[in-house]
Backbone:
């Protein structure tokens, strides 16, 4: 049986670059020939919007073809997978109804493991090399579900004064989750939205380097307006302009991730 690896991109700090990093690492891995399933775990639908036009995302969000319904119905999750315009990339879209996912989980048996159990059939099918999950900026039962279903966690941290605020909570949450899911490990921290005009990047790196036993990815992602233009065009920047700086950085990051997980 093929070994499907699952990676969750999470940080309780909002706007740290989770969705952008998740979508572009997925796009980069697919370009490298890996078969990738993207799982949009956030009601903001940003991961879905990274691959599909807004009207298509809205159609999935308003209908039944989304992660919320998959969790609610607990049927075979493979029925909720939709194609994207890109080779080797499929998606389970999100829905604004994900805002009440905690409520859905509440009454369920072994509620921390609902997603893990749902993804078993996908893993066993061997259809994907990687399942990448985009988490919302919260810490609760749903993010615990995402983490319990993951082999690895990647934490995107924004190079800004408030970027590190709350990271201690994230680590604490990870530790609690690992008690339930001992197979989960922190792959590393990726520094995002680096603006070289500001000195703050150095300070962020120095602070992160004081953290013991935590891998900081060598690839840092710089602020690049191509990221925003790509998102405006419903594309990962890898598929929008492969030669631009951020696309090259995401390719390097994906190579680092590939080396660490293969
Ligand atoms: N490298 C970059 N260059 C320019 N803009 C970026 C870059 N990375 C992210 N952004 C912008 O920063 C904002 C936040 O990024 P993103 O949505 O990926 O963060 P997030 O952590 O997923 O946010 P949330 O916590 O709301 O889910 C977005 O508007 C995105 O376009
Ligand atoms: Mg997001």
Residues:
């Amino acid at each position: 049986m093929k070994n499907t690896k699952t990676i969750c991109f999470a940080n309780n700090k909002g706007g740290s670059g989770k969705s952008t990093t998740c979508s572009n690492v997925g796009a980069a891995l697919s370009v490298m020939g890996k078969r990738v399933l993207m799982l949009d775990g956030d009601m903001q639908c940003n991961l879905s919007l990274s691959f599909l036009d807004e009207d298509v995302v809205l159609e999935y969000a308003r209908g039944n073809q989304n992660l919320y319904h998959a969790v609610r119905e607990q049927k075979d999750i493979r029925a909720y997978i939709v194609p994207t315009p890109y080779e080797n990339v499929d998606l389970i879209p999100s829905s604004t109804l994900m805002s009440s996912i905690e409520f859905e989980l509440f009454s369920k048996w072994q509620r921390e493991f609902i997603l893990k159990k749902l993804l078993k059939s996908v893993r066993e099918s061997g259809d994907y090399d990687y399942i990448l999950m985009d988490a919302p900026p919260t810490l609760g039962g749903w993010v615990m579900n995402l983490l319990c279903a993951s082999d690895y966690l990647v934490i995107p941290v924004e190079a800004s004064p408030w970027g590190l605020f709350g990271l201690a909570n994230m680590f604490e949450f990870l530790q609690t989750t690992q008690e339930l899911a001992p197979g989960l490990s922190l792959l590393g921290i990726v520094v995002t939205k680096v603006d070289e005009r500001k000195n703050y990047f150095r300070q962020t790196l120095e602070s992160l380097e004081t953290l013991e036993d935590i891998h900081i990815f060598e690839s840092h992602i710089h602020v690049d307006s191509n990221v925003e233009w790509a998102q405006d065009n419903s594309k990962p920047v890898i598929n929008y302009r492969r030669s631009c700086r951020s696309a090259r950085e995401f390719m390097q990051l994906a190579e680092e991730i590939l080396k660490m997980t293969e």
